[in-house]
Amino acid sequence: MGVTKRLALVAAVCAVITALAGFAGGTDFAVAAFVITGVVAAVLVVYDSVATPKTDCIEAGRVLESRLSLNHTHTAELYVRNKSDYTLTVEITDDVPEHFEHGKLPVKAEIPAHSEHVFTYTLKPQKRGEYVFPAITVRFSGILGMIRRKKTFETADSKYRVYPNIRDLSDYDMAALSRNLLVSGIKQVRANAENGEFSTLRQYAEGDNYKMINWAATARTGELTVNTFAPERNQYIYAMIDASRVMNSSYNNIQMLDYAINASFLLADYCLKGGDNFGAQLFAADVLKFVTAAKGPGQFELISDVFYMAESSENAADYERAASNFAAAVKRRSLIFVFTQLFNAEEAVRFVNAVKAHLSRHLVCAITITDPRLALIAEGTPIGGNKTDDESGNGEGGENAAPDVYMRSAALKYVRDRQNIAAVLKNAGIMSFDVEPDKLSLSTVAAYLNIKKQGIL
User: Fold this and answer.
1) DSSP letters along 149-204, please?
2) What residue ranges define each of the domains in the chain, with the CATH number in brackets?
3) What's the pLDDT tens digit per position in 112-137?
C-alpha cells in the first residue's frame, strides 16, 4: 500500500489547521487540532483501505507478437481487467528490456467496474536476439484516493525474438520490386531463351528473336507465335556473410552486419518463392554457422532460427578458411553472394585468392557496403544527422559544418581505396557491387534477378 498525492494533501491541510489553531489559541488548541485532524485522516485512510478492492480484483497481461523485426515499430497491448464493483483509476507499466526504444510508459486510465481496458505503446527493437519482458506492474488508487495498491504480474516465461527486418519481405512484392528497379535505373536484362525453361506462348512482338518463333503454333493460329522462357528454377543460391570486426560499424544506428543479414533474408524469400534452393554461411576467423541450401517454407524458418542471434566477432575475417569450408560442404555449382567489407586493395587480393583457390566452380558475387557519408565528405559537402557511434556532433561549426582538411583527406583515401578494390575484383573476373546500406537489400535482389535472367549460373 503506497501513499497518494491526496493523502499528502490531507496531511498538509491537517498541519495548516494545527498551526492556525496554535497561533489562535495556544498549545492546547494546537494539540486538540492535531489530535482531531489526525483521527479524521486516520479514519479516512482506514476506511479507504477497507473499502478499496484488494489486488486480486485486477488481472493484467500483454499481447505482443513473439517474432519482432529489427528497427521496425511494433505495437504492444497491455490489457487490465477490473473485476471489482468500483471504478478504478489504474496506472500500468511494462518492464521493457534493454535495446528497445519504446513509447511513453507508464500509462493511466479509469476502468469502470467489471470492465477491461487496453493500453497500447510502441516498441522498436534495436538489436537482434531473444528478450524477456520480466513483469507488468499495475497500480490503482483507493476509492477515496487516500491509498494506492500495487500488483506485479510476472511474465518472465514470455520470450520474444528479434529477427532481421522480416517486415520488409511483405513490403517488396515482385511487382513493386520491378517498378523500383526501373526507377533506380537498374537495367533488366532480357531473358536468354537458350538458358531458360519454356514458360508459355504469346504473339510475336517487334524485337523478338526469330529463333524463338514456334512454327507449329504459328501454322495452327495463322499468326506469328513465339516461345517465352522463364529463368531456370531449382538452382542453388548461398549467402556468405562476413561477421568479423569490419562489420561492427554502424549507419543510422544499425550495424553493417544487420544490413547484410536483412539483405540475405530478403534474398532468401525471393529465392525460395521462385523455386530455388537457398543456404547461408556466417564466418569470421572461422565458420560460425552454416545451413545447407534447400527449398520450401521450412527452409526460411530454419535460416531465421539459425541466424536471428548472429553477432559480429572481434576477429578478422579468414576468407581462405571460409572458402575452403564452403567448397568442402557444397559440391554443386551455386551462386554465392558474399557480404563483406574490403578496406584496401591488399585485402581485396586476399579475398580474390581465396575465391580462385576454392570457389572457381561457383559463381561468386561480392557485395561490399559503402558509407555514403564519407563520399560526401570527400566532395566537401556538409553533412549532418547520420553519425557513426563515436561521433559526438559537438565540434566547432555545428552539425552541418563543412569537413575539415584532415577529415576530407581521410575520406578521399577511402574513396580511392573503394575504386582500387573494385578494380582488383573486376580484373579477377569477380562480379561485385559497392552498395549503400539503405539500398543493400533491394540491390542484392536486383542482382539475383538479373543473373537469373541472363542464365549465366
Assistant:
1) EEEEEE-TT-EEEEES-THHHHH--HHHHHHHHHHHTPPPPPPPTTTSEEEEEEE-
2) 2-41 (no CATH), 57-163 (2.60.40.10), 167-174+177-188+233-454 (3.40.50.410), 197-230 (no CATH)
3) 999 999 999 999 998 888 899 999 99
